[in-house]
């Protein structure tokens, strides 16, 4: 019976992975279609002035085009992956647990998009302007390769996007009982240190830019802590021992 259950689980996993893979391929094809428009849109943004993208090898343009299509597909595959994961574990959950877990999917995706938008429209322009000022200060001739430009962009955008998943992570840890208000209060100072270091690593080394990145991260943590505490109290009130 155990072996039959294992086969059924593996079959279910295979079906879910096939769905995710097919969706990824579809989104990759869509990404290949829209990548040129996305890249031209990014290039036309006036937030950092006119920057000429130079290629230093024949494959630079092609590689950036493919990376853009891949990231487009990955971005829009994440919600499907999360939903398939939820659908896989749903039979082992109660009806209440199933309903409470489902909203995590759109919330996680929305927070990721918000993190990408904040890092691209706020943090990235500050970093670029600071680096350009430094280059001009030492009299360097500014010639930017497209590969290095997007490598620098991804280095800033994705850590911030992942940091914006903090509310979902804290809520999930609270939901499964690994995080309590007492533990959260004890770890607050370590979280502040980690977020301050993160903000300093992805922001220019001037006070205004550093604060404009670090303060939102700290506010995000405090909002996450408040929601986590609310979730914990709600769980305690609905537990059988308190009923």
From TrEMBL:
<keyword id="KW-1133">Transmembrane helix</keyword>
<feature type="transmembrane region" description="Helical">
    <location>
        <begin position="101"/>
        <end position="123"/>
    </location>
</feature>
<comment type="similarity">
    <text>Belongs to the TatC family.</text>
</comment>
<dbReference type="InterPro" id="IPR019820">
    <property type="entry name" value="Sec-indep_translocase_CS"/>
</dbReference>
<keyword id="KW-0812">Transmembrane</keyword>
<keyword id="KW-0811">Translocation</keyword>
<keyword id="KW-1003">Cell membrane</keyword>
<keyword id="KW-0813">Transport</keyword>
<dbReference type="InterPro" id="IPR002033">
    <property type="entry name" value="TatC"/>
</dbReference>
<comment type="function">
    <text>Part of the twin-arginine translocation (Tat) system that transports large folded proteins containing a characteristic twin-arginine motif in their signal peptide across membranes.</text>
</comment>
<comment type="subunit">
    <text>Forms a complex with TatA.</text>
</comment>
<keyword id="KW-0472">Membrane</keyword>
<protein>
    <recommendedName>
        <fullName>Sec-independent protein translocase protein TatC</fullName>
    </recommendedName>
</protein>
<dbReference type="Pfam" id="PF00902">
    <property type="entry name" value="TatC"/>
</dbReference>
<keyword id="KW-0653">Protein transport</keyword>
<feature type="transmembrane region" description="Helical">
    <location>
        <begin position="152"/>
        <end position="178"/>
    </location>
</feature>
<feature type="transmembrane region" description="Helical">
    <location>
        <begin position="17"/>
        <end position="42"/>
    </location>
</feature>
<feature type="transmembrane region" description="Helical">
    <location>
        <begin position="62"/>
        <end position="89"/>
    </location>
</feature>
<feature type="transmembrane region" description="Helical">
    <location>
        <begin position="213"/>
        <end position="232"/>
    </location>
</feature>
């Amino acid at each position: 019976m155990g072996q039959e259950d294992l086969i059924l689980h593996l079959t279910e996993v295979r079906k879910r992975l096939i769905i995710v893979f097919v969706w990824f391929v579809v989104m990759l094809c869509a990404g290949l279609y829209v990548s040129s428009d996305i890249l031209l849109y990014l290039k036309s943004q006036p937030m950092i002035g006119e920057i000429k993208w130079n290629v230093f090898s024949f494959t630079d343009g092609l590689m950036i085009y493919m990376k853009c299509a891949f990231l487009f597909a990955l971005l829009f595959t994440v919600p499907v992956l999360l939903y398939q994961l939820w659908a896989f574990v749903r039979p082992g959950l109660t009806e209440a647990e199933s309903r409470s877990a489902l909203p995590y999917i759109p919330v996680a995706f929305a927070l990721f998009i918000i993190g990408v938008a904040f890092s691209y429209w706020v943090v990235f322009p500050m970093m670029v302007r600071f680096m350009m000022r430094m280059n001009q200060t030492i009299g360097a001739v500014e010639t930017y390769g497209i590969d290095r430009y997007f490598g620098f962009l991804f280095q800033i955008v994705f850590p911030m996007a992942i940091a914006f998943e903090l509310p979902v992570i804290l809520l999930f840890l609270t939901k499964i009982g690994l995080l309590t208000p007492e533990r959260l209060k004890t770890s607050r100072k370590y979280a502040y240190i980690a977020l301050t270091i993160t903000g300093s690593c992805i922001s220019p080394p001037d006070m205004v830019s550093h604060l404009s990145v670090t303060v939102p991260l700290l506010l995000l943590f405090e909002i996450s802590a408040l929601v986590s505490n609310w979730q914990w109290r709600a769980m305690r009130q609905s537990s059988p021992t308190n009923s």
